[in-house]
Amino acid sequence: MFENISVFSVVFVLLVCFIIHRLLFNRRKYDPPLPPAAGTRLPVIGHFHLLDRDMRGPLDKLRKKCGDIFLLHMGSIPSVVISGYEALKDGYKNNPDFFTDRPYFLHALNKVTRGGQGIVMARNEAWKEHRRFTLSTLKDFGMGKSNLEVSIHEEAKHLIDEINAHKEDPFDPKDLLSAHVANIICSISFRGSFKHTDPRFQGMIKMFDENLASAGGLANFFPWVTSIPGDPLGVTKMFRNSDRVHEFCEDIIREHIETYDENCIDDLTSAYIKHLKKLESSNESTTMNQYLASLIADLFIAGSETTTTTLRWALVCLVEHPDKQERMFAEIEHHVGSSRLPSVQDKADLTYVEAFYMEVLRYCVITIIGNFHMTPVDVVFRGHTIPANTVVIPNIWSVFSDPDIWGDPENFRPERFLDDNGNIVKKEEYIPFMIGKRSCVGESLARMELFLFLSALVQRFKFESPPGTKVTFAEIDGQFGIVHCPKPYKIVAKVRP
Ligand code: HEM
Hints:
Blueprint: H1 7-25, H2 56-66, E1 69-74, E2 77-83, H3 85-94, H4 107-112, H5 124-141, H6 146-164, H7 174-190, H8 199-213, H9 235-258, H10 268-281, H11 292-320, H12 322-335, H13 351-364, E3 373-374, E4 379-381, E5 384-386, E6 391-395, H14 396-400, H15 403-406, H16 443-460, E7 461-464, H17 473-476, E8 479-480, E9 484-485, E10 492-495
Parallel strand pairs: 2-6
Antiparallel strand pairs: 1-2, 3-6, 4-5, 7-10, 8-9
Helix pairs in contact: 6-7, 6-16, 7-11, 8-9, 9-11, 11-13, 11-16, 12-13
This protein binds protoporphyrin IX containing FE (HEM).
Protein name: CP2U1-like protein
Organism: Mya arenaria (Soft-shell clam)
Keywords: Iron, Membrane, Metal-binding, Transmembrane, Transmembrane helix
């Protein structure tokens, strides 16, 4: 009878027994215990069957069932989701060393960041050095400086001209916004900016888009998807695109090295070269030698898509809420008029503009979850052990949708950020840029861009849905990836008299 049993069947049965044994009996005991598991963990996919591309529903359901801290296996990778402001504050702010590290074993992120170079996925000393350098350089060349305002105004003027060229015909603002926002990072990183018709620049923007639209993130947890013939998830394309972005940055860095002049340090690239030269001449040890291209690529990716997406959502909210659009216009008209563009100096007067983009960031939740974090060692957190090398995921959506914090989180209401005197209300639970040691390094830059672009657009145009259509948040919602984007949409821009 045994001759009918193939070697394959025997191996298969043994493999199944091994997996069942591992799942049932081979677990380390922890005291305090691990966080509650999200549900039934299936072989190979883990808890993936409980998730969706739109994470908001599943995250709410799992939080209701398991509490603020629960365990999800993404494939075989253990991950803990932290929800609610108090738990996030406890984990990321009060105990900043618990979750500051980044997981080095996520296949796609590791590949596109060349093993954690740059800043976003960097670790340990390399991360500290690059974060320090980036923050101080962004301060020197950008945030809060009038030369940055000049660059943003330049881009805003081009943007207005290009919108004007549509002559009140319906148009999709995405490519225009992408190009002008990316140009700001370009001018900080490489001094110059690109004409958005420049093929090198257009190619790069297209690659960012393709990477965001691809389901390449799955390769983080299931590296084998990379070998599926025909690349249906766009993973191979994502890797190729990231190589090209690096090559593009390396080309420009080479040009900078050739023309380097220590008396003319006016962008991030030359500041980096200067910093490296100083460290070399004093024989100080540094991790900063091959990281520059990755650092710039990180700033493009982390800084462009987030800001562009926020502006795209802002236009949807303006169209859906014409009364709020008129209130913003009236504020600009009253305090600035129409003969010049609104400036950072006007910020104290234009509080409705600020409250509006703040509400866009909250209501549209640009990053539903923050980036992936990791426990460097076993951590005891709120009655649970989270073992070393567990991925930790901050659930930002849980904070922005919490009725105990916002009262009516489901409504778009910029007024929630204004007090009775029209001043901005600062709420500690407002965390679109996350909190703790890994919070966004570009927050001030992003706020400045959102304020200047948005006020310039509302000063010049009245945005409306094209005739016969209704552009609303509910209609446009539905593209999920690293960033929560609107689906493509068209609007009409009528020039203000
Ligand atoms: C509206 C715009 C933006 C939003 C909503 C946003 C949001 C975020 C969030 C939530 C994080 C933290 C992720 C985490 O670790 O949990 C982050 C990190 C980061 N952001 Fe932003 N960001 C924006 C704009 C920018 C800009 C303009 C830049 C660059 C110039 C930038 C550069 C970065 C970098 C480099 C990190 C990683 C920091 C680190 O790991 O130490 N972001 N951002």
